[in-house]
Design goal:
TarS/TarP_linker, Glycosyltransferase family 2 protein, Glyco_trans_2-like, alpha+beta, 515 residues, 5-stranded antiparallel beta sheet, 35% helix, 8-stranded mixed beta sheet, 18 strands, Nucleotide-diphossugar_trans
């Protein structure tokens, strides 16, 4: 997996800063990448660590000729270390990893093989989240000619991907240094997505485990300054405008930033748990951006709840945003298993689900807008539809948190009183799931998507597979409870029967004998 010279197939560039033992999972995963000796190199670009990290890196480099260490003055952000690592990289392809994340087994070999087979400039590997979200929709299936227009690439704006080195060099793609520092990967990825000739998504194998440290010690985990953050977002939007992409690509990126970087910060628990002065600054910045930079067609293309929040932010209605957030946190997905069966290695599950606000089913008006607790929240002249409402069935391996969307037959059943019920039937073949690598314990979930919510509900099924590709064994607590109830009744009935027989025998004995 090299070009016949001393050049490795893949260079892994890792910025480090005071990472300590959090580096261990990444280091351990590097030996399981399926690449031959000399097929990869790792460049740790240390951003002036003050703990034992430099010594640890030196030890790794002394023990492994594929490891190199760059010592850099402290910059306080990953951009400069990544750029310096890229300058030193010799690989045909480059992967940017973080020091507290790690690779799935054989990930680099599979990513490189995909890039070579499809002549790709970028390969996005399936991500597994640990205490942080990952773009689930993007990884429904493999995509070997993905674009911003035909795939949800905009959902994945981090740099944890495989890039052709010559592609980055040809277009001068580097991480922005200096200020504003935030969203540095968004600015690089926006340009990269627009310039790439071919992008692939490798969804059928877990490639990258993306983690948020329990001590919240990731370099970029500090609370952002609203003015700096949204200046960085404006810079990312400037990049898109400068490239003059087709309207579909531009709208995909703008809608992604509208939902994730602006409006999600003003809804639900994210708003309620934020300090009020800071949240007010965010609302002010978002309101200005919505009015100045977000086109009406971009707003019209997001789900109803996001349109409502954008409208309230643009009008500066902070009190109504808080009132809406207090109600929003009460919305939950409720789901039930209507039936399930196993035939050989195939499991079929039928699910019904709906959204509830507190103790009541969520109700929708004839526009598909949820009935809201805030008067005048919906902007005038905007037709809102609940298009795309559905319930997915997701199966997750308990041991590794890998999850897979199952193919479903789905229907939506609106009721006269505004309630909406979703019904989905999913089928999964355990001989084929994850390429037959199915040994372990699997949890089943329903994911209800409607009007701007995407909420999970656990289902009372646990599936155990004793061997890869083997038949699934389903544990259904409802059936277990029913068996327990039947067993209790049998024990009770036997006990009552013995008591009755004993009493009958006692009454049958002669009086003299009873004495």
């Amino acid at each position: 997996m090299s070009d016949g010279t001393d050049r490795p197939a893949v260079s892994v560039v890792v910025p480090t800063y005071n990472c300590g033992a959090h580096l261990d999972p990444l280091v351990a995963s590097l030996s399981r990448q399926g690449l031959p000796p000399g097929g990869y190199e790792v460049i740790f670009a240390d951003d002036g660590s003050t703990d034992g990290t430099p010594q640890r890196l030196d030890e790794l480099a002394a023990a492994d000729p594929h490891v190199r260490v760059l010592r850099l003055p402290h910059s306080g952000w990953p951009s400069r270390p990544r750029n310096q690592g890229l300058e030193q990289a010799r690989g045909e392809y480059v992967f940017f990893a973080d020091d507290d994340d790690w690779f799935g087994d054989e990930a680099l070999a599979r990513l490189h093989s995909c890039a070579r087979a499809h002549d790709a400039d970028i390969v996005v590997g399936r991500m597994i989240g640990h205490r942080r979200g990952v773009p689930r929709e993007l990884f429904r299936e493999n995509r070997f000619d993905a674009t911003l227009a035909n795939a949800p690439l905009a959902d994945s704006m981090t740099c944890h991907k495989l890039f052709r080195r010559s592609f980055l060099d040809r277009h001068g793609l580097r991480f922005p240094e200096g200020h504003p520092r935030r969203l540095e990967d968004h600015r690089l990825m926006a340009a990269a997505y627009l310039l790439a000739e071919r992008i692939c998504v490798l969804a059928d194998h877990p490639c990258y485990h993306h983690a948020r440290r329990e001590d919240a010690g990731n370099v970029t985990a500090t609370r952002m300054d609203p003015a700096e953050y949204y200046a960085a977002l404006r810079a990312a939007m400037d990049i898109v405008d400068a490239h003059r992409p087709p309207a579909a690509a531009r709208l995909r990126l703008h809608r992604r930033w509208l939902r994730k970087e602006m409006l999600n910060r003003l809804r639900g628990q994210a708003l309620l748990s934020a300090p009020e002065p800071w949240a007010g600054q965010v609302a002010d910045e978002v309101g200005q951006l919505v009015k100045e930079r977000v086109a009406p067609e971009a707003i019209a293309g997001v789900p109803p709840m996001y349109q409502v929040i954008a409208h309230l932010a643009a009008q500066g209605r902070m009190a109504d945003l808080r009132r809406l957030a207090e109600w929003d946190v009460s919305v939950r997905a409720h789901a039930a298993v209507d039936r399930w069966q196993v035939e050989g290695r195939t499991l079929t599950v039928a699910v019904s689900a709906h959204l509830r606000a507190g103790d009541e089913p969520l109700r929708f008006d004839d526009r598909g807008l949820p009935v809201l607790p805030v008067a005048g929240a919906a902007p005038d002249g905007v037709v809102m539809r609940a298009g795309g409402a559905r319930t997915d069935v997701v199966i997750r391996r308990r041991e590794t948190r890998e999850e897979f969307f199952l193919p479903v037959d789905a229907t939506t059943e609106p009721a006269a009183d505004g309630r909406v019920c979703h019904r989905s039937t999913a089928t999964v073949d355990f001989a084929a799931l994850d390429g037959g690598r199915t040994r372990g314990t699997w949890e089943v979930r329903a994911r209800v998507i409607q009007a701007g919510w995407a909420l999970d509900a656990n289902l009372p099924l646990v599936v155990r597979c004793a061997a890869d590709g083997g038949p699934p064994r389903v544990e259904d607590p409802r059936r277990l409870r029913a068996r327990i109830r039947r067993a209790v009744r049998r024990i009770r009935d036997r006990a009552l029967g013995r008591t009755a027989r004993a009493g009958s025998r006692s009454h049958d004995r002669p009086a003299a004998a009873r004495r």
